[in-house]
Amino acid sequence: MKERRQYKRIRIDLPAQCKIYGPSEICFSTKVYDISPGGICFLTNDKIELGTQAEIQIKLDNNEKITMKAKVTWSEGPQGAEPARAGVKIVDIAKQDLERFVYFYCQRLFNFLMSRKKILIIEDEKDMVDLLTYELKQKEYDVVSACDGQEGFTKYLEEWPDLIILDLSLPKLNGYEVCRKIRREKNDTKTPIIMLTARDQEADKIIGGVLGAEKYITKPFDSEHLLSEIDKYLKAN
Fold it and tell me: Which of 44, 41, 97, 45 is nearest to 68 (CA)?
């Protein structure tokens, strides 16, 4: 069973040398898969027995090398296209190398957080909000939500989202009114707006387009299609 991960793990791709101490000593070149302040995950040829001691040398971006002694806390064999991997907990590292390692992690974490995209969902159906929130967070988007048009417009002003998923039929302010306020009153023509509606009327699509919505998707919809549209608009921005 995998040891619980307590920190945000950051995906990286760094060359490393690994020495495994077991029944027989094994040395091999590998790549670090992700890191956290407490340990690293690296690629292996096969599963490694839990508790195995290891010595790992990582080459950082600036060509500095850090060396650590570690213990294997989880390991899994190849699964489909995914390679075999192992996770280790650092048990001994020189102070200077530890400082370099933590500094490197913090840099990568900062870059990761700054690059995360935020999506605002304005939708009054809780089940729909919960489903979209789960799927978007799985893709590592930040998500905020509002259950009516007025709250949605307020959240837009407060949160500065990178993309808005906007239901058409909302209490207080409907989707058209929210879209108009964003595009006309705030003169924001850059934030992509994807409209969701249960009505499949051509007139609704025309109005949404005139008001500045990038996409009009009819419920029920394929979530994979919605996610691909979100990815497309965010990459374009």
Answer: 97
First to last CA, the chain: 41
> Looking at domain 10-113, what is its CATH homologous superfamily?
predicted glycosyltransferase like domains (2.40.10.220)
Helix, strand, coil in percent for the chain, rounding step 5:
35, 35, 30
Tell me the C-alpha distance between 161 and 150, whole Å.
16
Threshold 0.85, pTM exceeds: no
Domain map of the chain by residue range? 10-113, 116-236
Contact between 67 and 55 (Cβ < 8 Å): yes
Distances in Å between the Cα of 149 and the Cα atoms of 132, 170, 202 are 18, 6, 23
Task: Return the minimum-mean-pLDDT range out of 35-39, 74-78, 145-149.
Answer: 35-39
116-236 belongs to CATH 3.40.50.2300: yes
Q: Give burial (CB, 10 Å; 0-12/13-18/19+) of 116.
A: exposed
